[in-house]
Amino acid sequence: MASNVAKLNLTGDALTPGAQRSWWLREALASDPGAECPPLQMNLNADVVIVGGGFTGLWTAYYLSSANPSLGIAVLEEDICGGGPSGRNGGFASGWWDELDGLVALYGCEGAVRACRAISRSIDLIGHVCATHRIDAWYAKAGYVYAATAEQHYEVCAQMVEAAREAGAPEEMQPLTAREVRARCDSPAFSGGAFMRDGASVHPARLARGLRRVLLERGVRIHEGTRVERFENGAPATAITPRGTVRARQAVIAINAWATGWPSLSRRLVAWSSYMILTAPAPEHVAAIGWTGGELVSDLRTSVRYFRTTRDGRIAFGGGGGRAKTSIGKAFTHDMRAVVEAAEGFRLLFPTFADVPIVDAWGGPIDVSPTHLPAFGSLLPNVHYALGYTGNGVAPSNLAGRVLADLVTGADSEEVRLPMVNSPSRAFPPQPFRALGAALVRRAIIAKDTAEERGRRPNPLANAIARLPRKLGYMLGP
Question: Fewer CB near the last or first residue (10 Å), C or N of the chain?
């Protein structure tokens, strides 16, 4: 491991993942720590209690308070708002046109297109909210490049383009030649690809903290450092914390991967890890590879690697990891192996950055659903949820906020009639088989992807294990 660290030019906070918050969140807090939101210290009544202060909970409170400013809303967050995936993700607000095949299989063509259009609207709404409330979340809509790094990826590109054409939306996904991909982001590994116009980058932690500020200005009660120890269904729904209780007519569960510990939701998810690394500022290197348009980029591996630039000329690069455990703990956040794997991917794709150090790294759990897509709905008439973002929650969480707000208020809207709202869900196996199977499959997928990228035939056993989830009816893996 030590020799790899030196060879990969890892330094500083990249050597201590989990010892500090993500670079995004540290930067956002340094820019504006925000007003204090002390832990709950009393019993109170509310119209709506929201468990979770990430994107889903914050957007739900935003749309509820927009619809009814007098509504009594209480947000309970165990850490700080944005302290989980919302403050450490890649900041990819991206469309669903690349997911059309799965959406069509689940919901039919008409339902799939409605879902994609709803996500497109969410991307624009994020920009609109940032502009309206002066949230400096670095919002920039420049589209999304899918870059082929193996021969097997050409067919994936062709299928994505053809699916959009068959759905009557050919403008949403365009093929790219190798020259066209490399004109946008010049890596010697890129040999073709596709372009999706639905793609905007954000500074995820600044967005979360900005939403927090807006909600406080509206009078929404936010209690950070408040763990919900027990939740009692009924009328009212009751959230019990160490030092206080919230009783509310309506409740929203918005806890991402931590829903694996919520009995009524646990088998709808698998939690596994996702990691990011960050380079030192190198704007001259970024300019030299022509990556000046701000496009989001990812490769087409099943174990996807995704990357974007920052305002100060860094590259933030996600990939590696894949740990799955029966409970969420340090194995998700302190994984140096995952950092090394992400760094290896970065060095492979961007050899001209060899002299640019990787100065930060962070990671944590994401909530993976059986369909690879999120689901929204109601457990009871007054208890609602959103989960299963599978690492792509920036834009879908905005949609979730609109859906959940309408479920709470009983509004009959286009959003609540979307096909992923209260749709039947296939369950994962019980623990410990769920975590063990997820870990085994994830490592097999990474091994298969790596072999193909290096022009080798994948190990037959790894290939078979990687394809096992789809054979079992899950929409995961190759």
Answer: N
Question: In sequence order, which residues have a C-beta less than 8 Å from that of residue 79 and are 6 or more positions away?
Answer: 53, 224, 225
| C-alpha to C-alpha distance for 313 and 296, rounded to whole angstroms | 14
Q: Point out which residues pair with 193 in neighbouring strands.
A: 147, 176
Range scoring the smallest mean pLDDT among 128-137, 141-150, 396-405, 423-432: 423-432
Across-strand partners of 278? 316, 360
Q: Would you say the pTM of this structure is higher than 0.90?
A: yes
Q: Which tens digit of pLDDT belongs to each residue from 305-314?
A: 999 999 999 9
pLDDT digits (tens, 9 = 90+) for 271-296: 889 999 999 999 999 999 999 999 99
